[in-house]
């Protein structure tokens, strides 16, 4: 991680792209590389177009975008709907919709995040269509991610404008934030929960960052390993884009080498949980919110192969018990389902009626158990 906050340049971006592949993210299925509020110069060029910070990107931003494409990655850039960006005080896109969209297309950008700072007197539902229209006019396929923090119910009007939108406030690597984001997201009606090309974004994953990646809001990560697993689990079953923010290189020895922690590898490279997230079916939903704090919440998502992903989520400060009847999933009670624990990576057997067949499963405080229930061949009638 560079010692200066919000810093990026050609060399650091290329090193991070290389590290992206070398630490295993590409192999696990990640395909997007994004720059947030760090890349743009404080002034537009003489023609009114955005330009990268000239000292940091002497060969232009297209050089690093081409490098990402060469490595098999798509590339995303950040902008803001207002006059200036949120952190770097760089130029925003207000009244420059066509210029900014056209230069993004010219550079080969694949994904554009548009934040919502310095927007006095503007309204999201009237503003974001301007960038959406400008991007469409370029003829280049670019993903628009709206970031107005879910304040104006973007899940109602967003699908006609963008491919994803922030459904919640900013997320930081502390338990209170993770719990709040899950609560906010769970209040969105199931029919607006997300489907292909229209996803609710729960903000960046802070997985395993602790003190190595201080957030712009001044919060450092303090979550436990179980809480980080809950973050990843709930982002996955609720079909949020899995956007990771973390250093990918370790320069502590004086030489920078690709590196993520063992905890990050365990969580971020869990391809079984990633598969739940990457399914194209509608997002998961809250199926059961118990009246007591001694029981886990139950979330479910139907998957394309006929299986059902289930999350037993315990937001409480004490251990809870988790269980559910198959009828809660819309499955006949006499159907035989093979149950697999996606964090333990082991099969739990073939069962009918309910899970567990007898009693309950312990769910530790702030933890989440993720299961995949698949139709068993024993239930096939020939």
Q: In terms of topology, how is this protein built?
A:
Layout: H1 10-22, H2 25-28, E1 32-34, H3 61-70, E2 74-80, H4 97-107, E3 111-115, H5 124-137, E4 143-146, H6 154-157, E5 164-166, H7 175-186, E6 194-195, E7 198-201, H8 225-237, E8 249-250, E9 257-258, H9 262-268, H10 271-278, E10 285-288, E11 297-302, E12 308-313, E13 320-322, E14 324-325, E15 337-341, E16 346-351, E17 354-355, E18 361-363, E19 368-375
Helix pairs in contact: 1-3, 4-5, 8-10
Explained architecture:
25% of the residues lie in helices and 20% in strands. With 382 residues, it is an alpha/beta fold. It has two domains: 10-278, TIM Barrel, CATH 3.20.20.70; 285-379, Sandwich (Immunoglobulin-like). α4 (97-107) packs across α5 (124-137). It is globular, with a radius of gyration of 22 Å. The model is unreliable at 378-382 (pLDDT under 50).
CATH class of the largest domain reads Alpha Beta
Rounded to an integer in angstroms, the radius of gyration calculated over CA atoms is 22 Å
> How far is it from the N-terminal to the C-terminal residue, by CA?
59 Å
User: At the fourth CATH level, what is the homologous superfamily of the largest domain?
Assistant: Aldolase class I
Task: Report the mean per-residue pLDDT as an integer.
Answer: 94
* Count of distinct strands: 19
């Amino acid at each position: 991680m560079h010692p200066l906050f919000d810093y990026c340049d050609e060399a650091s971006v290329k090193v991070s792209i290389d590290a992206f592949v070398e630490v295993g993210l590409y192999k696990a299925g990640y395909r997007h590389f994004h720059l947030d509020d760090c890349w743009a110069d404080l002034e537009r060029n003489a023609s009114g177009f955005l330009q990268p910070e000239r000292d940091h990107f002497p060969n232009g931003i297209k050089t690093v975008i081409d490098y990402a494409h060469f490595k098999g990655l798509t590339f995303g850039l950040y902008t803001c709907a207002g006059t200036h960006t949120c952190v770097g005080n760089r130029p925003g896109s207000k009244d420059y919709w066509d210029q900014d969209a056209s230069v993004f297309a010219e550079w080969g950008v694949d994904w554009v995040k548009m934040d919502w700072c310095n927007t006095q007197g503007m309204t999201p539902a009237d503003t974001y269509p301007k960038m959406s229209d400008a991007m469409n006019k370029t003829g280049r396929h670019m993903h628009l991610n709206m970031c107005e923090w879910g304040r104006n119910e973007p899940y109602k009007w967003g699908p006609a404008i963008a491919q994803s939108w922030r459904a919640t406030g900013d997320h930081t690597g502390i338990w209170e934030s993770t719990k709040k984001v899950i609560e906010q997201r769970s209040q969105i009606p199931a029919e607006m929960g997300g489907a292909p090309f229209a996803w609710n974004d729960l903000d960046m994953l802070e997985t395993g960052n602790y003190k190595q990646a201080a957030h712009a809001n001044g919060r450092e990560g303090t979550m436990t390993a179980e809480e980080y697993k809950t973050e990843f689990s709930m982002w996955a079953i609720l079909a949020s884009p899995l956007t990771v923010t973390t250093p990918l290189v370790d320069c502590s020895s004086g030489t920078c080498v690709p590196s993520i922690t063992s905890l990050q590898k365990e969580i971020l490279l869990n391809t079984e949980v990633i598969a739940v997230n990457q399914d194209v079916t509608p997002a998961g939903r809250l199926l059961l919110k118990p009246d007591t704090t001694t029981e886990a919440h139950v979330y479910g998502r139907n998957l394309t192969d006929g299986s059902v992903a289930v999350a037993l989520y315990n937001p409480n400060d004490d251990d809870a018990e988790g269980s559910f009847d198959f009828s809660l999933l819309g499955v006949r009670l006499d159907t035989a389902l093979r149950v697999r624990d996606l964090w333990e990576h082991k099969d739990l057997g073939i069962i009918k009626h309910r899970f567990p067949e007898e009693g309950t499963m312990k769910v530790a405080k702030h933890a989440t158990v993720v299961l995949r229930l698949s139709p068993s061949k024993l239930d096939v009638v020939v």
